[in-house]
Amino acid sequence: MKHIISACFFLFSLCMSAQSVTVTVDQNVTLKEFFKQIENQTDYKFAFTDQIDTNKKYFNQKSTFKQTDIEKLIAELNKTASVQFSIVGNNIFVKQKSQTTKPAKKKSKLTGHIFDDEKQPVIGANVYIKELETGVVTDVNGKYSMEVPNGSYIVQVSYVGFKNEEKRVAVSDDTKVNFNIDSDSQQLGEVIVMNNKAVDIKTTQMSVNKLSMQEIKKIPVAMGEPDPLKSILTLPGVTNAGEASSGFNVRGGAADQNLILLDGAPVYADSHMFGFFSIFNADIVNGLDLYKGGIPSKFGGRVSSVLDVAQQTGDFEEYKVNGGIGIISSRLLVQGPIQKEKSSFILSGRASYAHLFMKLADNKNSAMFYDLNAKINHRFNANNTLSFSGYFGNDLFDINDRFASTYGSTMGILSWKHKFSDRLNSNLSGFYSDYRFNLEIPIESFKWDSNIQSYGLKYNWNYQPSEKFKINYGIDGLYYNFNPGVVQPTTSDSRFNYKQLDKKYALEASAFIDFENQITEKLNFRYGLRYSSFYRLGPEPISTYENGQAVVYNPLYKIYEEGTPTGTINYKKGQAISTFNNLEPRAALSYAFNDETSIKASYNRMAQYIHILSNTQSPLPMSIWTPSGPFTKPQLLDQYAMGYFRNFRDGDYSLETELFYKNVQNRIDYIDGADVLANNNIEQVILNGKARSYGMELLFRKNVGVFTGWVSYTLSRAEQKTPGRTAEEPGVANGNWYLSGYDKLHNLSIVGSYELNPKWSFNGNFTLQSGQPVTYANSYYEMGSIHVPNYSLRNENRLPLFHHLDVAATYTPKPDKKKGWQSYWVFSLYNIYNRKNAASMSFTTNEDTGANETRRLSIFGIVPGVSYNFKF
């Protein structure tokens, strides 16, 4: 009997040990989840002491076992897990491993740069180590850096539109490895190109959108010219005043509340031809980042957003040429080495020629623009690089010899990048930026010139004491010279006399420090502080007013009027007229539930010391910048944002959702009928109010495959409030909150790109927005035989719904050709169903019938476009 029982027990044990299981473990699998996988497939039970926390994660790497014998599985797990498993009968015992483990491997730095096939640094490329299942993203210089245990690894580099690159790298001491990745023009059938647009779950940065030039060039726009600035209008929270309008509005902010940087230098006007084109040439732009909230401490001076645009670096090894010929403009880019592997240049130019067609049609009107971009880089050694970036652009208008205007920008920035060590580097840069506007009206025999100039110096340091802690800090200085305008007669019998409006001068200085701290594997915290000072300087005469009020209220007519100066204070050169100081704290927090899901929150305070004087919804070329001073306080922003972020199917799809609330103090408002053009005492038409905006943003992306794109939607409200200064004053709109001119309740964009085959690709863009708030006439009164419209409260009405659908097709005749002359065609249709979107509504009287009329002004119907693009 005893032998029979022993035999049965032996057979039972054999059956138990013969069981096979399929199990997957990784760093996110808890012990309890592992138990469940085993117990669901076998009769084994687990036993453990109180020292073992089953909700803890004890596995150090990802492993998958398919139909593996249980004993072999346990043996393999014991090699890597931080607990010890042992099989006794039908039980698996779990205990802590003894502390006599092997010493941890020494860690070393693995660094390098990622370059594309044109030797340009690739921003935002993914660098991934397979064995460690860890990775990083390249910075604005295409650089990556990570600390890894010494050993041999396969390093993989991937980026949208480029072929994946792999290298086996041996790391023993600090190691530097560069990668060159080739563009992937062939996307056949099942070939899937990974996109780097999956959400970075763990980083604290939120409220920022990045667009590569591959994406920008696929978005159809009017006139068929790829436009970096127009492309950001497809992102959530971004709108503008309508078709062919300059500027853009972010989260209900005005156009002058956006800081626009080109290679780090400020830009004061962003468009050509009154908004038809942006000043950014798509050929030379490397990419752009739009910060809408959670703005790092290194940025300051505006209260709505930061648009950071980077130009390409010229090729250090060979000469290259590319360009394009369009319907009304063409462009050309040349780049190459000055001294191979040491210095390079890149030069790009654009010009329009619509004025030539006007002359052929015997049209005396003329409108054209041109611009030049240039960049020179020189590498002294591995630790020192010097670069110069420059931009020059001009617009020229001549309307029937009755109106002539030229305006444009000039910008230059010299930058020295120095690497002290792998952990510390710096960037010292000095820049000059100028915007000028000239107007001449021959029939009135006068001309008017105005401009704003700024000179700046920046010195920034980046220090990384460890992989989990980074410090960015620096100082900035910016000197302004504002010339509101000089009026000059052009003939001896002109009714205008020479008049120089009072020039204004200011100095803006700041210092910042920003910390990035990985507190735990799931929790990341970024916090910082910016301290800014602003000095309004002489020489300048400042008018004084009774009770200090440059605007007075007339209770009889119930209107605001210009105050009468009572005297003048003359400030000497360099004397401080007004001084402002502000602390601008910033903070951002992210918590990752796992590798696919996180929540984030941010707060930032920002101060803005310069303002555009314009009472139109879209800034015009003649809009004047002015500094804060005795009657114009700095704008102060407090913005709060929180969001939920999710990647699906390993980043194939991504979702970004955010809620935001913005509050702005000291927002400029204007009295009814304010005249801001050539006004030497602008304080007589300005009131100080406040603004707020709040809303929800959604961005859903499809990141991989032959069909890619995104859907963005924003539901938001933007309002202003300018209460009366006394009990009897009504303020603006009776002192209540009213819709600002930048309010768009609904804003929807759908962007799609389909790769049919290597020769043909198709792109589409649908935009739908609520009409912008306007003020309509709700009645009229008669003065003699003239009907005078009477208007409602400010912005009580809206323009009709704004929407259009744009499509484009790209044809590449020889997609396999990689050398010599390469070309492709782009065919586009803007506003394919010919929607007559209203740019404005005017109220007038019909000259024939005398009846009152409301007239809609539309800029575009359907607009075809075609361009031929080439490179060699």
Which tags fit this structure?
872 residues; mainly beta; 6 helices; 58 strands; globular; disordered N terminus
Provide a descriptive summary of the structure in words.
The chain is mainly beta and 872 residues long. Helices cover 6% and strands 55% of the residues. It contains six helices and 58 strands. The strands form 14 sheets. The chain has a 22-stranded antiparallel beta barrel. Mean pLDDT is 85; it is low at 1-17 and 185-196.
What is shown here, in short?
With 872 residues, this protein is mainly β. It has 6 helices and 58 strands.
SSE inventory with pairings:
Elements: H1 2-17, E1 20-25, H2 31-39, E2 45-48, E3 63-69, H3 70-80, E4 83-88, E5 91-96, E6 107-115, E7 126-129, E8 134-137, E9 143-149, E10 151-158, E11 165-171, E12 175-176, E13 179-180, E14 208-212, H4 213-216, H5 228-231, E15 238-239, E16 249-250, E17 258-262, E18 265-267, E19 271-272, E20 277-278, E21 285-291, E22 305-311, E23 320-325, E24 329-339, E25 343-352, H6 354-360, E26 366-381, E27 384-399, E28 403-419, E29 424-441, E30 446-466, E31 469-489, E32 499-500, E33 504-518, E34 523-537, E35 540-545, E36 551-554, E37 559-562, E38 565-571, E39 576-592, E40 597-608, E41 610-613, E42 624-627, E43 635-648, E44 653-670, E45 686-702, E46 707-721, E47 738-739, E48 746-755, E49 760-769, E50 773-774, E51 777-783, E52 786-791, E53 797-798, E54 802-811, E55 822-830, E56 838-845, E57 852-858, E58 863-871
Parallel strand pairs: 2-5, 6-12, 6-13, 17-22
Antiparallel strand pairs: 1-3, 4-5, 6-9, 7-8, 7-10, 10-11, 14-21, 15-16, 17-18, 19-20, 21-22, 23-24, 23-58, 24-25, 25-26, 26-27, 27-28, 28-29, 29-30, 30-31, 31-32, 31-33, 33-34, 34-39, 35-38, 36-37, 39-40, 40-43, 41-42, 43-44, 44-45, 45-46, 46-47, 46-48, 48-49, 49-54, 50-53, 51-52, 54-55, 55-58, ...
Family: Belongs to the TonB-dependent receptor family.
Signal peptide: 1-18
Domain TonB-dependent receptor plug: 201-301
